[in-house]
Amino acid sequence: MAHKDMFESDHLDQEDEENHDEAYYSGKFNLVPITRSTRQRNGEVEQTMLKLRACINCHLVLSEDQFYDNGCGNCPHLQMDGDRRRILDCTSSNFSGLISIIEPQKSWAAKFNRLGDNVTGCYAISVVGDLPESVREDIGR
User: Fold this and answer.
1) Which residues in 24-55 are b (16+ Cβ under 10 Å) and which e?
2) pTM to 2 decimal places
3) Where does this polypeptide localize (predicted)?
């Protein structure tokens, strides 16, 4: 057996690689975008880093714009959608660790981190910060 033939069977077929890429890069698992493409006036496309923030209450990690557009999927009572001030009060950019949960009900990692009842997404392991007193009072009403 030639040296080249010895390793040919160990590699995936080109078709398998294409199917593998489609499954991973189809957008199904793009939960937390890292960059955003913006087109400048001169026609060039610029990649900008997004400002990721974690909800202080449930640890869901989203970009600041995602919190602004949709609020927190786990904490609608915090009323963050459309309110930049509330987003800054109820989220923190100071977080560590990241866990991605695709199927919260089935995931042992979600259960271990007490995320089993939360929405699909990426979560911070620890978040630095507390909800302001005014927000806690609003929740209590």
Assistant:
1) eeeeeeeebeeeeeeeeeeeeeeeeeeebbbb
2) 0.66
3) Nucleus
